[in-house]
Amino acid sequence: MHAMNAPKTTETATPATARTSSTNPEVSASLAALGERFRRARVARDVTLAEMAQRMGVQPRTLTRLERGAPGVGVEVMALALWHMGLLGHLNDVAAAHLDAEGQRLAELRQPSRARGRRQLKSTGWEGLDKL
């Protein structure tokens, strides 16, 4: 379904801007998987949702939305969660040039071709005039 025609799902007890899923199914699936990984990392550290939210300086509901893969959660909230779990370094790999094979290929295609060496001039018959 085209993104403009896709219905937007909203939470009933929240403002209409707080969507629970993306209009793109691949994005929704990725956000849900990312949220689950955040939840598992928090649980593995034996930290409650309320404790983590307090450490991050956000409302527990915001952290719940992150862990459920809600599309409206800001990048800063994700970065804070990563930082508090000692995983912020992984954010550096998101869209990193060294991991973007397609971007590298396209950049190489746009590179100007290397300059050629100097061409030798053909003999004009005037050589040696400077020695007169």
List the helices and strands and how they pair.
Elements: H1 25-44, H2 49-56, H3 60-68, H4 75-84, H5 101-110
Helix pairs in contact: 1-3, 2-3
Protein architecture, described:
By secondary structure, the protein is mainly alpha-helical. It has five helices and no strands. Residues 1-18 have low confidence and may be disordered. The radius of gyration is 28 Å and the shape is rod-shaped. Helices cover 43% and strands 0% of the residues. It has a domain at 25-96: lambda repressor-like DNA-binding domains (434 Repressor (Amino-terminal Domain)).
Ranges where pLDDT stays below 50 over 5 or more residues in a row are 1-18
So how many helices? 5
Give the biggest beta sheet: none
Shape: rod-shaped
Which radius of gyration do the C-alpha atoms yield?
Answer: 28 Å
The helix content is 40-55%
Mean pLDDT: 81
- The third-level CATH topology of the domain at 25-96 is 434 Repressor (Amino-terminal Domain)
Do you know the CATH architecture of the domain at 25-96?
Orthogonal Bundle
Number of strands: 0
- How much strand content do the residues show? under 5%
Structural classification = mainly alpha
- What's the multimeric state? single chain
